[in-house]
UniProtKB/TrEMBL annotation, chain A:
Protein name as it appears in the record: Cytochrome c domain-containing protein
Keywords: Signal
Annotated signal sequence range: 1-22
From TrEMBL, chain B:
InterPro entries associated with the record: Beta_helix, PbH1, Pectin_lyas_fold, Pectin_lyase_fold/virulence, SCF-Subunits/Alg-Epimerases, SO_2930-like_dom
NCBIfam families in UniProt: beta_helix_1
Name of the protein this chain belongs to: Right-handed parallel beta-helix repeat-containing protein
Keywords: Repeat, Signal
Domain Right handed beta helix: 66-213
Signal peptide: 1-19
Lineage: Bacteria, Pseudomonadati, Pseudomonadota, Alphaproteobacteria, Sphingomonadales
Amino acid sequence: MKHFAWVACAALAFSGAMVARATPPRSVNEVAITDAAMPRLLSEYGFFTDAPAQLPGKGVTPYRLNTPLFSDGAEKLRFVYVPTGSMARANGENLLDLPVGSALIKTFAFQQDGKRRLIETRVLLHRADGWLALPYLWNDEQTEARLAIAGARLDLVTPKGEAISYRVPNKNQCKECHGLNGVVTPIGPKARNLSRDWLAAMVDAGHLDKLPQDVDQLPVWEDRESANLTAAARAYLDVNCAHCHRPGATASNSGLDLRWEQQDPHAIGIGKRPVAAGRGAGGNLFDIVPGAPDKSIIAYRMSTTEPGVAMPEIGKETVDSDGLAIVRKWIEEMAP
Amino acid sequence: MIRLTIAAAMLASAAPVLAETHSVTPGDGAQERLQEALIMAKPGDEIVLAAGRYSLTDGLSLDVDGVTIRGAGMDGTVLDFTTQKGAGEGLLVTSDNVTLRDFALENPKGDGIKSKGADNIIYHRIRVTWTNGPAPTNGAYGIYPVESDGVLVDGAKVSGASDAGIYVGQSNHITVRNSIAEANVAGIEIENSRNALVEHNVATRNTGGILIFDLPGLPVMGGGNVIVANNLVVANDTPNFAPPGNIVAGVRRGTGIMVMANDRVLVEDNILSGNPTAPIMIISYTQAFTDPRYDPFPRNVTVGANLIANGGYDPQLESAEQLLAAFGGELPPLLWDGLGNPTSALYVAPGTKGWTLGLTEQGKGLTGAQPAPLTNVPAPVEIFYREGIGAPPALLERLGG
């Protein structure tokens, strides 16, 4: 119900904007998505009717994930675009199978002087030769975002009041998380981490062929205290770690597999020795020691921001204390 | 004359698009300029790093096949990561047929250069240095190719790594040669890899010089077909400074060449001196494990003729004094833990003296050890089959012989 209200709210804001402006929404520039070039400006895609306000254009649908990836507390605005005349296909609990011409758009924002400041917008474009990930950096005037393939750093303050040097990833770093078996792939929009209502609305809108099975399995992060503890912790690890820690991905050589569906205790780290952790092990012998978060490498690496020790390796300048708390609690209550 | 011109024009048009050279210089914005060059490069391009010191705050990465990154020498071009704020390594390579040559990395916060799933990669005259010397706060690996087929490390120099200076993991067809590994926990380590040739290297001042390991529970298993020959393995006497928890934290100070749980390894024609625990150590995996794919014992390990002096005089072993007394002041140069098939675990060339811990059970540590001189070990019976061991010939040719 909560999701439905949220989507409806976004839709209202959208239609409100239309009325206020009394102009038809700009349509998405599908050539910019599928053409071989790398557009220099975010506006070239036409994803938004009002980009500074993040009001999506026609066919661009906002969504949220039940359990999201932590990014230093950034507010994240997610959108999906499915091209005219085609639709995404359901693929069980897994990623929605988005057709060529689709785009995933994610804007990162922080509060500054009481206002929302857009930092970057990352786009994933589904082209004929595969997915392409590109980062766009917003200007100080908040009027336009420009391609920043080499990434950037900028100083800002997180919602918890921590002053950080925020890292906008470079194009290759996008692949560090989005790479699977050597190619770029989306991570977020898996049916198991999307609400049933939102998926149903996508079907009704003609963007999705049918309601996938096994949807909505991961707990809603804000409701984690009342959710099943194992589900909340495993959801967190799936979303925040498993894009690298799984077979075929960046950290495959570690042998650690933190995917939601992985049921082998050793593979998810219980009693598993580190391989190439170096000082990241922090003097501990195992990834997870049941009942002992203080002896578990996973908790140790989540608890620091020191390069070479901190996990995740990129996209993190601060400790996610909420995420750490749920993982520690899960380990704490785990039967030895 | 006209014909010639036409022929030349045809030649030109048939030629592939010319590879480009991208020049990068140190100074303001080096991070972005260098990273942008790495991203915009096309296959076959060369990125030339002018001499000087590049102050970098984030890890660099390359994901384009066939690119060469060339500096002005390992003392001329220095990528300085002393102020690194993020990423798990200094440089990450994830594409194939890449050549890295003639530059250095200093003080990366994590690993130095990691190449993962990067087939046919060359590291030539690359230096990775933690300038404060051995410290547990240093990064883990200096040169770190993993999950790759075709690896050539030539003329590299790594010091200060808190795990292994040159570490090749879960890979195939590997050559590590002409390189210097100094003051690391492990100098050179080949782990869960096959067909590796480790030759003409210098390993000194490490805790352990050259380690050939096979570990359980990894995606790539079954290490073996390894030759360790013609290396200078001297004075590996730095106390172990690895952070606890890692497998190399268990390496005893003063280990020269160590083979653990591998199949078909040849250790021959090396010079070993000043390795006070054991010049050569052949052992089983020491810990308990559950991986059914894993064989924890050494198999078919051949210790040929090596030149060994000054070994085993100050072993970092339990009951060291009694052992020294029993063996007359210095332990024999070859140490076997006694585990594995007694007729095929180990073959030793006549004239090499050894001793056994006399262990009877894997995974129980030194419990039940019954040290004794090594007798009745079979001598090598056949010529070691070398076909297919080492980096592919094409890699050696790319380097120019």
